[in-house]
UniProtKB/TrEMBL annotation:
<dbReference type="GO" id="GO:0006607">
    <property type="term" value="P:NLS-bearing protein import into nucleus"/>
</dbReference>
<dbReference type="InterPro" id="IPR024864">
    <property type="entry name" value="Nup54/Nup57/Nup44"/>
</dbReference>
<dbReference type="GO" id="GO:0036228">
    <property type="term" value="P:protein localization to nuclear inner membrane"/>
</dbReference>
<keyword id="KW-0539">Nucleus</keyword>
<protein>
    <recommendedName>
        <fullName>Nucleoporin Nup54 alpha-helical domain-containing protein</fullName>
    </recommendedName>
</protein>
<keyword id="KW-0813">Transport</keyword>
<dbReference type="GO" id="GO:0006999">
    <property type="term" value="P:nuclear pore organization"/>
</dbReference>
<dbReference type="GO" id="GO:0044613">
    <property type="term" value="C:nuclear pore central transport channel"/>
</dbReference>
<dbReference type="Pfam" id="PF13874">
    <property type="entry name" value="Nup54"/>
</dbReference>
<feature type="domain" description="Nucleoporin Nup54 alpha-helical">
    <location>
        <begin position="13"/>
        <end position="110"/>
    </location>
</feature>
<dbReference type="GO" id="GO:0017056">
    <property type="term" value="F:structural constituent of nuclear pore"/>
</dbReference>
<dbReference type="InterPro" id="IPR025712">
    <property type="entry name" value="Nup54_alpha-helical_dom"/>
</dbReference>
Length: 112
């Protein structure tokens, strides 16, 4: 499995004592692999990589938020169209009902 290969590669590249200590404090060994960093250049490269990954994730979140906003707008427009059509139909039926009630009342008064 990929995690086992990554753990084996990281352990082979690390000092045994440091590996054992890092593995002992690993919060989630089923998902996380300790990797030894030696020197400032390696630390800076790790930090730069994490910043780049953070920016990439922020861009993905922004893209997802934009897509979600488009979907929400489309749903809102569709709902408004349906609501407008329902209101027009309600007004039409109300007028028809009023005309029928008026005609019934007219016929009732004529027979009396």
């Amino acid at each position: 499995d990929e995690l086992a290969r990554a753990r084996a590669a990281a352990r082979a590249a690390a000092d045994d004592l440091l590996w054992d200590r890092a593995d002992a404090v690993n919060p989630d060994p089923s998902r996380l692999v300790p990797v030894q960093l030696s020197g400032f250049a390696a630390l800076k490269a790790r930090c730069d990589g994490q910043h780049a990954e953070g920016r990439a994730q922020a861009q993905q979140v922004a893209a997802i938020a934009a897509t979600l906003a488009q979907v929400a707008d489309a749903r809102e427009v569709g709902a408004r169209v349906k609501l407008t059509a329902a209101a027009a139909r309600h007004a039409q039926l109300s007028h028809r009902l009023l005309a029928i009630v008026g005609r019934v009342e007219q016929l009732r008064t004529e027979r009396s």
